[in-house]
Amino acid sequence: MENTIDHGDEPATYPSIEVERRLSTIEGLCAHLQKHLPEIWMREHVEDIHDAANSARGHFREFLNETRAERMRLIELSCASSK
Predict the structure, then answer these.
(1) Is residue 46 in some structural domain?
(2) What is the pTM of this model?
(3) Total domains in the fold of the chain
(4) What are 4-15's pLDDT values in tens digits?
């Protein structure tokens, strides 16, 4: 017998993972640009972009941590009502 898992209740993608991927992409692009841009002021602007992305990542993680308890309560509530 084949082992199968029903993934019907799982979302197609997880927004938190997608946000982390995009922020990592920004980080990689910024690192590349900082090595290859000819002007100091251009590299400084890229550093500002990099700092803003890191700040966004921190705020997003803080948001996820603050809402974790509420999400778990809603999951438990929905599981209990479906039984």
Answers:
(1) yes
(2) 0.66
(3) 1
(4) 555 556 566 778
